[in-house]
């Protein structure tokens, strides 16, 4: 991004568009540097490519503790690679042929599109949501989309916790997806990269906890594949460490055939082994992060309410979906279309020194919404909010 | 590898098959750890994906000093990614369509095959060599191969210094390749990953120095792309740091479209910036490495001569091509074919505790040769040689 905000450039653009959590840099850097400066002979040699035994068993351990899978995740079911974007590419590659497609509930994380299409040539086919629930997708809606694209649909891809909403799926909704893929012999890819970043246990006043698909009764576990990594829950986007967890031996074997192209380096195995070794350190870090996310969420929602900005309630990850349709209409009453008005308002925000992601970036059908990331120090976040309000 | 040799398992298999240089671990680890334990805020964030400006300009600086290109290599012509294997995949991907092919002089580095085929679906078509020169390929030989595969040939791929021979190409030979690709509007990929590991300046008694294709008169520089990385010359295989250097803006742009899938992590940018910053440190490291390689080469060739093992003279990289046709025939006089005898002899070597790579791994047309890596401490290397001699 040109002209980014920093302490020496306070008029620069504050980035609340990229999903980065900057609340725990000090703690995570301390832990990383503990192991990072201790490269050994073995790190110079070719490693195992798909993650060392210790790395994979440590990841399995974390997920078994936090995802509470029905059936324990084994190290052999974990494939480690260079970030979750490449892991979307890889799971798409091994499950599909060029021209195949996955159904995705819209609005959706825009990266799914590029990650599946760029190398694997796999498409996404959006499905809408019910009027009363932004994450609600009925069996009928899925069937309708499927009927139109039967030849190419290979499965469903979701982000849970959801991106852009920052909301967790209910067990009932997940079971709709699970039954559907099972009925049609398809696959469910559940991107659970924000799994450890649930900061509240309610949504719209109702008890709502993160539920991993792995914790449910799966008629065929080999049709459900989850993605996780250190980018979000451990605030390490730049380190490019992701994982695919699959109960399907053929899928894991197929992934390994590509591991040379998407492996993490050997020294990262050493680092991850240290990072994920102590349950106590992990629990402390995760709960500290969740507390900080909750603090920021309370502050930002207080502020939004005061400024009459509608938003969709969130409980996880570190972004939320705000509704600026009214404000945009007031500022640009004569725009050709709501989509164009959104783009013009987005430029206005950039000119006022704040970058948040417009609904178009999530292929939303209804314009006028923005995703705002709130995992930034409050003094910067509140300055960004002022710049947004100034744009109304 | 199962049952590897180490100081606690002296009867384990000594690996002289994998191209790893273990002569400078102490020096390189010191330098790596100097920068590696100092991760900063910026390393946690998404980086530039194709290498930071500083990383790319430092790589350009090294190559300008050691490759002596006719036209200075600019940082903007350097694309950095996760190892040279993935970079072969990437350059194959952007220059070709599935089913296309590159001519490769045989025997050749077997990785070219998998790196081009696995994701990109690109083939290699071998061309032989002249009777009097293991690296000699005439225009006529290239034309003959091309005529048979015209529709799919996209160019030529070579390793210079050559793998498996450890020999440098002459300017005259490189010009044969250059003229050929230019005549037919093809591309030359020159993998120069061992460029800084020339340890002697003669071959077969004749003055022979490494010459980069970039140092020659190129009728069309946009048709010549080189590969380099830190794996070999800096003994850092496990770190997965490679680079493509191309004068073609469309090629660099196309590569960038894929950079998300093959980037190096942000903390490695920090590390490389430090590693390649001081010309003095680099020069000292490179000449120390070359001296150590030369010492080992003198020792191993002395030993081979004493044991009547024929070999092809080498001057670069850290392996050589030994001729065991006679010895294999003596041990397995009744084998169905030379190829089968080679495999049986290879198993015999493994059983005797040493792994060297058979000619089949390099798709050689004539069996009975092995590539032996000699960049290992002499006490281990000499033990491995004893195990080889014991197998005769």
TrEMBL record, chains A, B:
Residues 13-376 form the Aminotransferase class I/classII large domain. Pfam families: Aminotran_1_2 (PF00155). The keyword Transmembrane does not apply. CDD domains: AAT_like. The keyword Zinc does not apply. One of its GO terms (biological process) is amino acid metabolic process. Keywords: Pyridoxal phosphate, Transferase. One of its GO terms (molecular function) is pyridoxal phosphate binding. It comes from the Eukaryota. This is PLP-dependent transferase. It comes from Anaeromyces robustus.
């Amino acid at each position: 991004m040109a002209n980014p905000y920093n302490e020496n450039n306070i008029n620069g653009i504050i980035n609340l568009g990229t999903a980065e959590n900057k609340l725990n840099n000090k703690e995570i850097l301390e832990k990383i540097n503990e192991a990072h400066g201790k490269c050994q002979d073995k790190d110079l040699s070719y490693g195992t490519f798909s993650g060392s035994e210790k790395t994979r068993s440590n990841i399995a351990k974390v997920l078994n503790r936090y995802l509470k899978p029905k059936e324990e995740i084994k190290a052999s079911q974990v494939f480690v690679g260079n970030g979750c974007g490449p892991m979307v590419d890889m799971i798409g590659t091994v499950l599909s042929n060029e021209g195949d497609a996955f159904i995705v509930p819209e609005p959706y994380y825009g990266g799914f599109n590029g990650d599946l299409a760029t190398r694997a040539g796999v498409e996404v086919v959006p499905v809408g949501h019910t009027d009363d629930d932004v994450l609600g997708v009925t069996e009928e809606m899925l069937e309708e989309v499927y009927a139109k694209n039967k030849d190419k649909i290979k499965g469903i891809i979701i982000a849970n916790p959801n991106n852009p909403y920052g909301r967790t799926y209910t067990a009932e909704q997940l079971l709709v997806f699970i039954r559907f893929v099972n009925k049609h012999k398809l696959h469910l890819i559940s991107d659970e990269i924000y799994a450890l970043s649930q900061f509240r246990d309610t949504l719209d006043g109702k008890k709502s906890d993160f539920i991993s698909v792995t914790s449910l009764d799966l008629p065929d576990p080999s049709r459900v594949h989850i993605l996780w990594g250190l980018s979000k829950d451990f605030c390490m986007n730049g380190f490019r460490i992701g994982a695919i967890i699959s109960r399907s031996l053929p899928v894991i074997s197929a992934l390994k055939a590509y591991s040379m192209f998407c492996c993490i380096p050997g020294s990262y195995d050493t680092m991850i082994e240290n990072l994920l070794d102590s349950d106590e350190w992990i629990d402390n870090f995760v709960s500290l992060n969740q507390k900080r996310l909750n603090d920021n969420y309370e502050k930002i929602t207080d502020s939004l309410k005061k400024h009459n900005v509608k938003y969709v309630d969130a409980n996880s990850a570190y972004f939320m979906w705000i509704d600026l349709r009214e404000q945009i209409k007031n500022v640009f009453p004569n725009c050709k279309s709501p989509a164009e008005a959104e783009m013009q308002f987005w430029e206005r925000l950039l000119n006022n020194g704040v970058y948040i992601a417009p609904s178009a970036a999530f292929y939303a059908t209804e314009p006028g919404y923005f995703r705002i990331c709130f995992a930034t120090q409050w003094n910067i976040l509140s300055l960004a909010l002022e710049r947004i309000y100034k744009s109304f």
